[in-house]
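Changelog-linked ticket: flavin-adenine dinucleotide example.
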Amino acid sequence: MVIVGAGECGIRAALSLRERGHEGSVTLIGAETHLPYERPPLSKDAIAGADEPAPKLIASREMLEERNIVLMSGAEAVALDRQAKSVALSNGAHVPYEKLLLATGAAPRRLPLAEGIEACVYLRTFDDALAIRAHLKRGIRVAVIGGGFIGLELAASARRLGCPVTVVESLPRILARAVPAEIAEAVHAQHVRHAVEIRTGSSIATIEHGPDGVRIGLADGTTVEADLCVIGIGAVPNMSLAEQAALAIENGIAVDAELRTSDPDIFAAGDCCSFVLDLYGGRRVRLEAWRNAQEQGTLAAGNMLGGHEGHTAVPWFWSDQYELGLQIAGLSDEGSQTVRRDTGEGAFILFHLAVDGRLVAASGIGPGNAVARDIRLAEMLIAKRACPPPERLAAPDTKLKALLAA
Amino acid sequence: MAGWIEACGADDVDEEDVIRFDHEGRTFAIYRSPDDEYFATDGLCTHEKIHLADGLVMDDIIECPKHNGRFNYKTGAAKGAPVCVNLKTYPVKVEGGRVMIDVG
Ligand SMILES: Cc1cc2nc3c(=O)[nH]c(=O)nc-3n(C[C@H](O)[C@H](O)[C@H](O)COP(=O)(O)OP(=O)(O)OC[C@H]3O[C@@H](n4cnc5c(N)ncnc54)[C@H](O)[C@@H]3O)c2cc1C
Ligand code: FES
């Protein structure tokens, strides 16, 4: 069993192969030099935490040794030979496989205007986070290009460190692709309260680097000046191996419900793959979400060992910005009607219902983990394809657990 | 630290639910199971220090509100990613409608 990519998904698959009793070899090939670690803290505590940042490891060296998982770190897989069933590495080695999992994740989408400018950086890896943290001293002016989750979390972390922050978003609002407008407004207002300047509807015309830092020229003729410019304009799946091996591609490495690619001996999972969600009428999606990477890694392991289990989990995502916690279950754009439930202290949840009354998503925001329990229960209602009465969803004294039992 | 202390009233916790109890700088979670027994564990998740009392109780399981890590609150056993370190549990008894826990 060979796994390419030693991130969240790859390591979960490796651990799961052993948990499921697989006794043959397990080889994990990872381009990064660190042991597998969690990425979500990179925009949060790794930037603004009090402690000296260290990667939050998913598995220690001992855990890997105990389980006889061979980790080849600092090794990039550069070619895939499906006839010979072998993966070629950058160091010249060839690793034969019986079953292969591609868990290569995604890479930040690059901004052509920023190429070659040293003060324009991206955030995906622990080393990226370290480099950003090293720059962020009180008073350092930060520009964030892209009002998506990673950019906004980074903006919040930079504010905690006392840096002035400007966020530049080309669309009319932040988080346009990811969350409903009401939630985005709550996030926007929180950033404004923390003195972040948000420039929506602003496309970038020029980026120049001079003696006083970076000058970002906007289409309306104004400029934003910064010492550090962090670019968070989305991610693109890492699929060059799959492309070169002529596997089917469709907004990511295309897999079926069992996470198999167009080659039955090759699986793909996590941020790099697009898969079909039965729950939404077979809609093909690609998620960039931590729990999905875990679940798919575990599921792929079972199917690599001959299982035939389909992916049924409801998409789920969280983000932390300042003291606010946001959680989303399901795909909100599947809804045609929205019901709002206010749960106190400014926390609220939007339930998204389809035309036939089925609950298809829930998005919530509030202090700390105020919305967590309700979102989790909503997730279970979504999985059950329940049609809960809208007026009961809206009433904060209705226990969602009771609706689940109904 | 003294052994048995009073944590809450038996009616303060709903069936299949959890509440938070703080005592001398420590924080605990007190559970009432669907079959009406009481249990106590450390109050913070072993993944990141998050209050489990905001989480969801389902049968024997407490699910962390932050990333859905799971523990069996009766034994403290870690039951699912991302948690891998078990949760400490404490003896519980109910006397005269009060829930007492032995904090050791
Ligand atoms: C800063 C940041 C914050 C995030 N915050 C959240 C959050 O709050 N909530 C949430 O739900 N999700 C969050 N995410 C998303 C989450 O971390 C990802 O969905 C998850 O890491 C995906 O796991 P993966 O294993 O598919 O990919 P990755 O974690 O990207 O791992 C892929 C690994 O494969 C390696 N690799 C790629 N190609 C090759 C090759 N050819 N050879 C060898 N190795 C290769 C890469 O170097 C990488 O280490 C965040 C992501 C980032 C970057
Ligand atoms: S903090 Fe509990 S699962 Fe992460």
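Closing comment: Example verified and attached. Residues 14 and 20 of chain B are 13 Å apart (CA to CA). Chain B has one domain: 13-89.
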